[in-house]
C-alpha cells in the first residue's frame, strides 16, 4: 500500500514539475529579464546569497551541494558580472567571504518580480473557490515538504 502511494506521488511530481516549468519559466521572454547570463547553478548561488547576504565559500558549497572546485568558476563568473564580490576574512585569512552586490540584489529582485507576475497571471484565471482550495493545499504541501531532511 505504502509503495503504491509513493509511486503515485512520484508520478504526480513528475507531471507537476515540468508543468510549472512550462507555465511559468518558459513563458518568460528575454526582454522581461535582466540582461545577465546565468547558469542554473550560478542562479542558485546568487539566490542563496540574496538571502544570506554574505557567506564563506565552503558554506555555499555545502548548502548548495556543489563541490568546492566547481564553486570557483561559478563565483568567478559572478564576480566578473559584478553580481558578487570577494571579501577577505579579517579573522582567518584562509577564508574568503562572498557577498552579493547591489547589482546582484537588483538582478534577484527583477527575476522575483517577473516570476511573481507570471504566477499571478497564471492564477488570475481561477475563481475564488479554486484559489482558496489551492492555498490550503499549497500550505499543506509546503508544511509536508519542510519536514524532509536535507
Automatic annotation (TrEMBL):
Keyword check for DNA-binding: yes
GO biological process: response to stress
GO MF entry, a single one: DNA binding
Gene3D superfamilies membership: Winged helix-like DNA-binding domain superfamily/Winged helix DNA-binding domain (1.10.10.10)
Xref: InterPro entries: ArsR-like_HTH, HTH_MarR-typ, MarR/SlyA-like, WH-like_DNA-bd_sf, WH_DNA-bd_sf
A Pfam entry, by short name: MarR
Keyword terms: DNA-binding
UniProt domain HTH marR-type: residue ranges: 1-143
Protein name per Swiss-Prot or TrEMBL: MarR family transcriptional regulator
Organism of this sequence: Paenibacillus abyssi
Higher taxonomy: Bacteria, Bacillati, Bacillota, Bacilli, Bacillales
Amino acid at each position: 500500500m505504502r509503495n503504491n502511494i509513493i509511486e503515485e506521488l512520484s508520478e504526480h511530481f513528475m507531471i507537476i514539475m515540468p508543468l510549472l516549468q512550462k507555465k511559468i519559466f518558459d513563458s518568460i521572454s528575454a526582454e522581461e529579464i535582466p540582461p545577465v547570463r546565468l547558469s542554473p547553478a550560478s542562479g542558485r548561488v546568487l539566490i542563496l546569497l540574496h538571502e544570506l547576504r554574505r557567506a564563506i565559500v565552503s558554506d555555499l558549497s555545502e548548502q548548495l551541494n556543489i563541490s568546492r572546485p566547481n564553486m570557483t568558476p561559478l563565483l568567478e563568473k559572478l564576480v566578473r558580472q559584478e553580481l558578487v564580490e570577494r571579501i577577505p576574512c579579517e579573522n582567518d585569512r584562509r577564508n574568503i567571504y562572498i557577498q552579493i552586490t547591489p547589482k546582484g540584489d537588483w538582478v534577484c529582485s527583477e527575476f522575483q518580480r517577473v516570476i511573481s507576475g507570471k504566477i499571478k497571471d497564471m492564477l488570475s484565471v481561477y475563481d475564488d473557490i479554486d484559489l482558496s482550495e489551492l492555498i490550503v493545499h499549497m500550505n499543506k504541501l509546503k508544511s509536508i515538504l519542510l519536514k524532509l531532511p536535507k
